[in-house]
Specification:
alpha/beta; 8 helices
Amino acid sequence: MSSTKQKRFETLARKARKCKICPDLADKIAVLSEMNGNINSKVMFIAEAPGRQGADRTRKPFSGDKSGENFQVLLNSIKLKREEIFITNAVLCSPRKPSGANRKPKKSEMNNCADYLEKTIDLINPPVLVTLGTVALEALKKIENHNLKIKENVAEVIDWNKFKLIPLYHPSPQVIASHRNMEQQLKDYEVLKREIEK
């Protein structure tokens, strides 16, 4: 691993952790560290935001909650190890409802985090980018505009910016129950496997 790349990543992660720009997220700490994964990864996953029971608590994306368990099943299905991938989010802090439950990130929060997302993608520079869910796919528009919709473009390999982009559904229990079940998602990951192996 190049020490320059490592230093650049550590600087970016430090800056993100100090960020207090979003009023509703100022008391939260960005989830961006070596626990996000391998900075020399062949594939980078972009999800929505750290979950209350998941990454906001564990500091590691997709760990500690049901979405994380489902994501692990999907990775295992194509023999992809955690140490081979990098995971980040459209919004690096955990957005909550007044009740404390997870909520969808606001447009302003996505705008505020767009620079971190762009810098992270540039730094990792993976051959394959995977968005998990609508929010992550929308977040990419801030970097390079597109007209992609998850319903129409799921599991397609698309040339976006200078990357191969594969939009996939989020592995949350709600999405699996109502939008794309586990059997369908397992098939989607076969597309990712073929692309990685190219």
